[in-house]
């Protein structure tokens, strides 16, 4: 069987089309013949289904610049898991932008219309722009060639928690605001702050800045004094976190510190009272929209969130806030 | 009862000494009288045991520059947990360097010789030099005034795994080295690399650089070619990781990638064969000795390690490698 490398396409004839495309979903049919991406040809070589491509055996093709090793590893892994998939090239699949493979549901192939996953291949040392996430599965190939699949999706956040409280006085003390003898709803219902004792509640700077802005907290110097203190101790990160905090509160979600989980916030969607607090659902990390992830940091966040039965959400702060959820996936 | 603020010491008389030092371990006895640190005086005010210090009530003292809010929160928390503790001042405790409080075992106090914890108070926004860890408990006060205790200790690492293998040939392919038809001990016994299939093992660059250096891997260009590729894709981090990898292997421990846990390595102390592989014990992050931690990153690593029943170890690379273990502590 004759397979020839023509630029970045491997050309094969009608018999190859019948054998590889029609029955096993490799490549793209073209006028009765077959076009294969080099990574697909490498897989056929690897399996022993063909013997050579342009005279090259598997090792040679893999060592050539025609095939990326990480692409091959992901292609092979998905085939091993029982999927048919197509390299995401212009005219080969719909909307190839930003992904490397289009994966079909098990039992389906390029002849069908359904897509199970849109997969982007990433080496563990490649950085990943946050703005490029949201409609793809990252297949991260680590240095030992293990693959971690991370499903990314844009989402909304929302809940039924009530952010409004009886107005309260507070005193700015270094990195917190203390409310002496606050009305009980501040902590008990709306879950702002943390009790110092029965007679006092401490607010974080971000909580205090939000409440001062809504007019529910009276503090010397007003909202500006609190935000200024926040910037002094946190820099520009403070404003970013305040934007995300406010977006969550405004959406009916209670954000509390995510420090113990290494995140900015953990969130509670439906707080009626602190006494009957449920499990927090999300871990939120606030990032500038232009942020670029190191895959290892992504893996760390997602793994931790999974371990504590929460969903990792990145809040990308640009003109507004975009929410991107990332979860581990086993295809 | 008269308490007066004298510089950074609160002076009190003999009755206060009997009541607070002799029976409850506050302060330091001085010629039958009592010296208190302001944080201790604040706690006595908070509890209502004294009414004023130099005319100041609790709120006023806490709002003054004499008492740090985070120190107070940790002092109070440890008292609430049933401990007596002494502010780490020169002449008040032995070896006060690098810590804020010396905490005695429950039931003991400053009259006894035993120390349970040496505690350093850290705000979540303060950075922590890696070199300052090893003989202290960090009490990290987060923005909502919750306290996370992290116990740090220097340690050794060691195991019984054998790093030597039959010499093998390898081919450098972008970010990995592939060994075609390797001797079985490379993967099966010594646990280098990852199977591509029955006939090939892929080594990570750090594994390959180590094996090339020991002479067990023959690769075009030798160890330098592998290390150079490593630096191309990872920068100076590669050499740091190689140093840590080699130190672990030389100590009889098998390091494998820690990518899925967001770390540099996970380690196996006693590998006889991959078939009977036990649980990996440590997660290792390689850092320059001059590294400064953000407490949030520390919390993330330690939390994750705990969740997967491993111990978090930081490998600080300077002239040699120093190993610092960090674990969550509930005092």
Task: Explain what the structure shows.
The structure is a homodimer of 331-residue chains. The mean pLDDT of chain A is 96. Chain A has helices at residues 14-22, 38-47, 58-63, 69-80, 185-188, 205-214, 222-234, 237-250, 295-307; strands spanning 4-6, 9-12, 28-30, 33-36, 85-87, 101-103, 117-123, 128-129, 135-141, 147-155, 168-173, 176-180, 194-197, 200-204, 217-219, 254-257, 265-268, 282-288, 292-293, 311-317, 321-329. In chain A, helix 2 (38-47) packs across helix 4 (69-80) and helix 6 runs antiparallel to helix 7. Among the domains of chain A are: 4-123, 3-Layer(aba) Sandwich (MutS, DNA mismatch repair protein, domain I); 162-242, tRNA intron endonuclease, N-terminal domain (MutS, DNA mismatch repair protein, domain I), CATH 3.40.1170.20. In chain A, a hairpin with a 2-residue loop joins strand 11 (168-173) and strand 12 (176-180). In chain A, the strands form 4 sheets. In chain A, strands 5-6-7-9-10-21-20-18-17-16 form a 10-stranded mixed beta sheet, with helices on both faces. Chain A is elongated and about 85 Å long. The first copy, chain A, is α+β, with helices and mostly antiparallel strands and 331 residues long. Chain A starts with a strand and ends with a strand. The first copy, chain A, has 9 helices and 21 strands. In chain A, 27% of the residues lie in helices and 31% in strands. The interface between A and B is large, with 52 and 52 residues. Chains A, B: One of its GO terms (cellular component) is cytoplasm. Chains A, B: Residues 1-62, 168-220 form the tRNA intron endonuclease N-terminal domain.
